[in-house]
Batch of 3 targets.
Target 1
Amino acid sequence: MVHIAPEFFVRGPSAFARLLLCSLLSVALLILDARYGYLDGVRRVAAIVIYPLQRLAGAPGAMLNHIGDVFATRSALRTENAQLSAQHLQDALNLQKYQALAAENAHLRDLLAMRQRLAEGAIAAEVLYSGRDPFMQKIIVDKGTRQDIKAGRPVFGAMGVIGQVTRVYPWLSEVTLITDKSQAVSVQNLRNGLRALLGGTGDNSQLELRFVPLSADFERGDELVTSGIDGVYPRGLPVAVITQVERSAAYQFAQITCKPAAGVASHGQVLILDRDIEMPERPAAGRKPVLPAKSRKGG
Amino acid sequence: MRPRDIAPQEILPPVKSAFVAFTLIAALTVNLLPWSGLLLIVKPDFVALLVLYWCLHQPRRIGFAAVWLMGLTMDIADGSLLGQHALAYSLLAFAGIVLHRRVPMFAMKVQVLHVIPILILNDLVVLAIRSLAGADFPGFGYFSGSLIAGALWPVTCILLKLPQRFRDSQS
């Protein structure tokens, strides 16, 4: 007869076995998310579940802001009011000029039978907090799919381009700043119209112009605006100012560092473009480009 | 081991599971506060700190499933890769459970010297995952949160034992 001793302490699988199970699950999730991006739906649902917690965490800050508003002094309000009316006058003047120019431009485009550029509208959103992930440059704003925000829409501040919406939840969306390493903006030099690619560095006060030949005409102080050819950002918005140009024969390209025009990280409110930018249709994929005629052999 | 490195042990009434759950959710809420600027850089990961605390002091009251779900919640709230915190916290819990007979025996100073490397290990796991996914090293400031968390360890121990002490003094 086999005698089996009773187990005194039933504790289930060992800690190591549990760790192994958890690690395997995590690694599976990581691969699915990083490699294939299958989990956006899961993320969206889970985000709704933890939304109340996020609101709860944000409440004290919002309340402090509220209290600050209540106790704003009369003189401070007055100064601000005076400043704003002066600003308004200036803006009105500029707007008149702009309207005249827009009308003239529309007329000229009509004459040239060019495609009319759409008047662009934007949704104002409030920045809730900056992203906590230290590996990415992000801000979280308080508008989401409920306000018809879609991933890929460009985001601006009063001074220029800030970034692009990269992930949308029902009441929130994540904006990846142009200073993020993975972001690139197609820009144009305001002084001479040269186009280049502006990339983030991961540092929130620095951008770099990538793949610019040593001989290209970029100087310190040049303003860079969006070129509009990337189909993401509308044309002509300020993006950055060149702060340093270094041309060294040791590198293949010029080392050009820039400062973001919009002071990317220091915003309270931002604007999100509310429609996609219309681009002309792309040429069909199968069609071969027409090559210039070859000269005859030996010619 | 010198005698002064060992703390006198006290016997307290058992912890209630509801209290463990409450502190973990509170830590999660604190993590979700809108931190920004320098504070964001030096902010300790409170969830990691509490997971480690409960695994060291009450390994029977906290399970891997709970820890793993806390990690997943952090990933979703941060918008980072799904599973990175889950994996890091699981390893953290394992380290806590393996060391749970050892670390609480020590005096506070020596406990801190145990806790900081474990938390930095937690950071390193996240760093390794993100590096594999193609991110850059964010600078040594990245580890400052764990040092601060180590400094907060004595306070955490005192605060989290308060309910048990209170019940002890009542009975």
Target 2
Amino acid sequence: MTVFIIRRLLQASIVVMLMSIIVFFGVNVIGDPVYMLVSPDADQDDIAAAIARLGLDRPIWEQYWIFLKGAATGDLGNSFIFGEPALRLILYHMPATLELAFSALFLAIAIGIPLGLYAGLYPDKAVSKGIMAGSILGFSLPTFWVGLMLIILFAVELGWLPATGRGDTVSVLGFETSLLTLDGLSHIFLPALNLALLKISLAVRLTRAGVREAMGQDYVKFARAKGLSTKRIIFVHVMKNIMIPVVTVMGLEFGSLIGFSVVTETIFAWPGMGKLLINAILQLDRPVVVAYLMVMVLFFVVINLLVDILYSILDPRVRLQDQNK
Amino acid sequence: MTDINLTTPPKVETPFGRFVSEFFESRIAGVAFVALVTIILLAILAPWITPQNPYDLGQVDVLDGRLPPGSVAYTGYTMWLGSDGSGRDLYSAILYGLRISLSVGVASGVIALIIGTVVGLVAAYAGGRIENIIMRIVDLQLSFPASLVALMLIAILGKGIENIILALVIAQWAYFARTVRGTALVERRKEYVEAAQCLGLSQTRIVFRHILPNCMAPLIVVGTVQTASAISLEATLSFLGVGLPQTEPSLGVLIANGFEYMMSGRYWISFFPGLALLLTVVSINLVGDHLRDVLNPRMKK
């Protein structure tokens, strides 16, 4: 087990290194950062001074080395626009994004699993067919368009829910959260639902497939023969067996929720790191873009690592296969 | 001489004919297919069936701006879907936008398909270390969602139509590579490949003339689904303002332009382009979904 974890850790750090090379060279070789930094009316001397100050006159490998040394100590450069360390900006906006993503995950599980269970137990009912058709729509609808429709319907036409911002927040352990005030909850509902839509469809499909497969298995027949009530069979025996894959996949999708939150945050003016990224791209604020990309890479690598380890605990065959390679 | 019946030749069931009749067995898939063909035709015929060219400044009047659906324009025709902020007829703008959205989606889908197929075939046929390296890259890339990969690339490359296509291709080639490799690995072990090798055919010929045609079924399915997701992804990026510029007004750009008018209740400027996008993506997905069922021998009854 330890060997397996060490191997995976090594692989993960290689991935992070590779991605840092791609991101750094992508941003710094394709674009020319100097012209983002000096004012348009600067003369040659100013430009030369800026180049020297930023170390851009040195060979690119040396620049990368400096970047790497900075990254190791958490210094990814200062934002051109805000003049603050880019990493601090990202971390400052991260709680809002995490809050949104967790709420969406919660909605996906709370809505998707019961619907999928119903569709799996009664596959021929009209309601089930409706649920499945809805899940196809959920996969096909572009997230941003659904967001717009939610705003038109609930915020503009009906006026039930606000469409922008976080509302009142409460500070918990130094982090602001919208989840503890009524106003905050009304603000987070639409964006969280928007973000959750795709994952609701996913949860419906996974649960339905799991239930349909499980219902034909011997242990269900045996439980029936033993005279257990249908309720008990479904909620104790079947659910226990299908929850593990469903929850694992949903957990895996958490990373993609963070990625997709870029779209949702822009539509609902949610002050998370996704919106920060879009603004940084539009304003050519390269350090923030690089910092965001590196944080996301780290995030995904850690999630994948955790999932790998989790799988190897749940299913020892994964670990053994890895050793035989 | 024997009597040959020349008037009614026996009906021969070609594989293609069988495929067509099986495909249209599903009514939803049939409707989706017809809808898709209609959308493509509308996009191609746009200049001839729209009342105005929305990007010819001589034909657009700012006085027509923000008219609700059904209004009559200054120049006399009815704007069934209303007009946008600068007075363009939305129906015309949508058809012109469809052209851009569809061409970007199809172009990136096809390029990604070609690159992914070649890489996947090489991996499957070469095996060993080359396969290992290629599949590591594929796995690595697929561990990030395609939307995030595309967004990262746009952050690095900047906006513009070539960069969008490039970003979509890089974000999607891995799906094709994985599919082709999986199928090709199965095909490789079959007797006909062995026979071709015994005949002394060159490796390139075996890979492209014998293995590739047998990998086509899953490739077509992945191709349709990926094209739909490319169209949707381009629209998303354009909506975020990091995709296509205003000079290439795809459906996503149109929706983004309407966003600012939405809060004041002028829903149609975003709504109708969105509806067009939705119909396109859903019909491609439904066709792809059903192709999967028809082309997969295991699903046959």
Target 3
Amino acid sequence: MAFWFAENHTDNVTLNILVDEQLYSQKSEYQKIDIFQSREFGRILTLDDVIVITEKDEFIYHEMLVHVAMAVHPGVKHALVVGAGDGGALRELARYDSIESIELVELDSMLVEACREFLPTTAIGYDDPRVKVHIQDGLKFIRRLEEAYDLIIVDSTDPFGPGEVLFTKEFYGNCYKALKPDGIMINQHESPFYSYEANAMKRAHRRIKESFPVHAVYQAHIPSFPSGHWLFGFASKLYHPLEDLDPVRWQALGIKTRYYNTLLHQGAFYLPNYVKEMLGES
Amino acid sequence: MLDQSRAPVYEALEEMRAEKLVPFDVPGHKRGRGNKDLTDFLGERCMSVDVNSTKYLDSLGHPTGIIKEGEELAAEAFGASSAFFMVGGTTASIQGMILSTVRKGEKLILPRNVHQSIVNALIICGAVPIYINPQTSRRLGIALGMALEDVVRTIQENPDAKAVFVNNPTYYGICSNLKEIVVHAHAHGMQVLCDEAHGAHFYFGEGLPVSGMAAGADMAAVSMHKSGGSLTQSSFLLCGPDVNADYVRQIINLTQTTSASYLLISSLDISRRTLAQNGVKIFEKVQQFAAYAREEISDIGDYLVYSDDLINGDSIFDYDQTKLSVNTYDLGLAGIEVHDILHDEYDIQIEFGDLSNFLAYISIGDKTKNIERLIGSLYEIRRRYKKAKNPLFAYDYVHPKLVLTPQEAFFAVKKRLQLSQAVGEVSSESLMTYPPGIPLLAPGERITQEIVDFIQSSKEAGCVITGTQDITAEHINVLA
């Protein structure tokens, strides 16, 4: 029996997706986890009734989350992903032979299990032998670490549920401490379009600015997210996202991507005026 | 045994709501309909039980029905002979205790590190304070509990005193040897009054310091709204078997409103029911939160987290494990600075900070993720702000030089002086640094150079000085 999955993007806007089957539905200690089979978007993972990823457009999100930093930092050996039980960020990182260790900190073990069972497209990331999973609070995990990683990817849900901690100043500050002197932090940075996400976006940006000397925001188009216009944060201790981009080095790796390329990389940092205003950089 | 699953005030209000009684009585907002803005803000459910005392809802000043039943349930739950719902905060409970126990000119033995409300109660009743030097820890920079020997000696020196007053515990969670104090006080015909503004949970949790009533104290003022979960401003006044509760009620009625809020009363009723039924589990959870935070914060380095290691059998006879008191001396920051950084930069509000300590209040309302945020922020504060240590703040207890009773001095003819010019004069007002709200001067005491110096350094450290008419505390009123 087909039915419509509806996500409220605001009090007045809803996205409806025709769904053929509900594959999974459980309440974990932290959140409600559902996985649906849809006609248009393939499998869809939702947490507390909010879409986290769909099979159809997750490549955009995960490629932009990983490859931008990897094309800038010349020597990522130790990478950490915080959040993101779906495994998509791990999958993209695992495409780099030069990375020695890929760690994931995820709070919710039930989410990891659900994804491994029902979302093979992204959960394939778990199969790489370099991947090590820690089931723990992200802030708790990171606060004891100093200069341990070259790259930290904060792949959080919205800052309104269990993901809230991953948008705090103390979290960003502890990430700074856990990065090596030339480390980069990339984060899911919400959307500028609807006020709900836009406020979270502004707050996150302000806090990142306070913690990192180099900070920039870049964008991508992710159709299943509210408004489709989504932002990512690039925060770094040393490297600049454009000045230190090395297209030749990255292209030589021969990594085949569907969304990311090094020209798009540069364009992604050129933001609309209203977004620049929100970021206080107009 | 009464049925602690009952909450008579709450039940009567629910019944009233269901009956859709037509109100032709006060309050004039009539279940919120007459004040839409306020109802939008507080919610209809809340406004619909903001009602007045009636024949059916009983009266706080003269309880014969549901309030009487609720107070009897509370008395049983706290192991008291009688209990009063209080709607004027624990300040009102403190006044009730003191005014019921000591008359004008009679002596009350008390530690110096009492809350302002105790000194104010003395101003109202005219009693004579006999202060005991609370032991101090120079390393922690705080006043502790009373040494038993000091209490016994003071009792012997003042056989005419009517009562002994005890903080159970202090703001920082430190307890005196209450049971022994009760034994000695009772042996000399004195009553024991407990300030349990920070001790409501002692009555319900396991593995916590002894509560006033369990220790045999005669009266206790219990802030149910702190660890007990009721609404701000609600409190319990508890009495033991040798107290004339009907007289206490008359005393309470001297200053208590005759329009007591049913929001406050029902919050006491419901919270008592919750703690009587689930208190053990609730405070076990709170202790787990606190123990976890204590261990994690200790691991950061430079934060000295208070624990039962402090217990010394006397001035720190017991320690309340639910309190997360942290000394910041090794960090080179004042507790108040950590308090301000947490607020300004990390959106975290803690209970207080003083010159060398801060207190993060842990309760059943906490969430693991918020405790993680606090710990994570403290890591960051150490990384970003750690400084060289200042020399330990040298504050030695100065025995107050009582010239007049607080009441005589407070109501005397006075003149206004620059604080720095007032050395040698008799103060007519209270003066304390806040936090933590302990009097440096009470009305009737001689002002010394030491006190003026301490006030100056507290100000420089960012503490707020309160109690004086001059809000900036540049001036002080002294006896003319």
